[in-house]
């Protein structure tokens, strides 16, 4: 036997009616869900409704989204300040303009529109123009019968070549060896007999005979027209080794010297 309880439908319907806006009651589910007009709430408590918290959350997200967009815009501006400046720009508004571009032209004249890198390039060029650079070329002989390239020259330069014998030179047939350029076989170091070149001796003239020499004895020479420096044997050199040191600096703007391959 089933017993049915009669429920007042008006009461049930009342439980589903929208509560008063911002009501603090907490007796029915409607009180927890809330009213569409409830004010947004961003502080957690015990009286606000679900819809009040949802409104508060949405408002907070919108505020943060606006702040993020502003932040991203600011970052874009800052990033732009770190982009490299235009080559040789005369602009002087930001640090990138002062630092410059790797492609900036070297500058040796002080002014108000050049970048730091342009001045650094200019300083380096001046330093290279006025200081000697050192090159090394090791010549090892095995039945050498032709001119042996030592240093490749471009333009006009000042050079000083110093040779240190590493291994005695030997030749069954004998002969002489010198250091020169295309127009003069002995222009830098005069010809000397193979057997006079003994290990550890310094060769700078036609009579090498010591392991200690004054630097002034090794003369400087001016070379023009890009004439390369080479070793000239008069006959076959069977064996031996010499280390050549070339101290050089430029005279012409295009002057340079490199060790021959």
Please trace the helix and strand order, writing H or E for each element.
HHHHHEEEEEEEEEE
Rg for CA atoms: 45 Å
Give the biggest beta sheet: 5 strands, antiparallel
State the secondary-structure class: alpha+beta
**Which overall shape is indicated by the principal axes computed on the Cα atoms?**
rod-shaped
Q: How much helicity do the residues have?
A: 10-25%
Write the CATH architecture name of the largest domain.
Sandwich
CATH class call of the largest domain: Mainly Beta
Q: Mean pLDDT, nearest integer?
A: 88
Mind explaining what this structure looks like?
The chain is α+β, with helices and mostly antiparallel strands and 261 residues long. The chain folds into 3 domains: 83 residues, no CATH class; 35 residues, no CATH class; 128 residues, Jelly Rolls (Sandwich). 25% of the residues lie in helices and 30% in strands. The protein contains 5 helices and 10 strands; from the N terminus they run H-H-H-H-H-E-E-E-E-E-E-E-E-E-E. The strands form 2 sheets. Strands 1, 3, 6, 7 and 9 form a 5-stranded antiparallel sheet that branches. A hairpin with a 2-residue loop joins strand 4 and strand 5. It starts with 8 loop residues before the first helix and ends with a strand.
Task: For this entry, give a set of tags.
261 residues, Jelly Rolls, 5-stranded antiparallel β-sheet, 10 strands, rod-shaped
């Amino acid at each position: 036997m089933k017993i049915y309880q009669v429920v007042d439908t008006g009461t049930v319907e009342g439980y589903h009616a929208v509560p008063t806006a911002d009501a603090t009651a907490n007796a029915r589910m409607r009180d927890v869900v809330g009213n569409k007009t409830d004010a947004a709430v961003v502080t957690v408590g015990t009286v606000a409704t679900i819809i009040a918290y949802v409104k508060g959350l949405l408002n907070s997200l919108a505020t943060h989204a606006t702040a993020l967009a502003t932040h991203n815009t600011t970052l874009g501006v800052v990033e732009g300040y770190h982009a490299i400046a235009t080559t040789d720009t005369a602009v002087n508004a930001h640090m990138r303009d002062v630092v410059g571009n790797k492609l900036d032209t070297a500058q040796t004249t002080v002014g108000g529109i050049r970048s730091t890198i342009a001045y650094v390039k200019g300083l380096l060029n001046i330093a290279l123009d006025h200081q000697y650079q050192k090159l090394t070329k090791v010549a090892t002989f095995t039945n050498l019968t032709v001119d042996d390239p030592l240093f490749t020259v471009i333009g006009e330069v000042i050079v000083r070549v110093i040779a240190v014998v590493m291994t005695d030179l030997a030749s069954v047939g004998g002969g002489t060896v010198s250091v020169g350029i295309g127009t003069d076989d002995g222009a830098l170091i005069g010809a000397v007999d193979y057997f006079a070149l003994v290990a550890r001796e310094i060769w700078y003239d036609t009579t090498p005979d010591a392991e200690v020499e004054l630097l002034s004895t090794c003369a400087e020479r001016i070379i023009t027209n890009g004439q390369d420096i080479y070793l000239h044997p008069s006959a076959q050199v069977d064996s031996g080794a010499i280390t050549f040191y070339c101290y050089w600096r430029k005279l012409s703007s295009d002057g340079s010297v490199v060790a021959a391959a």
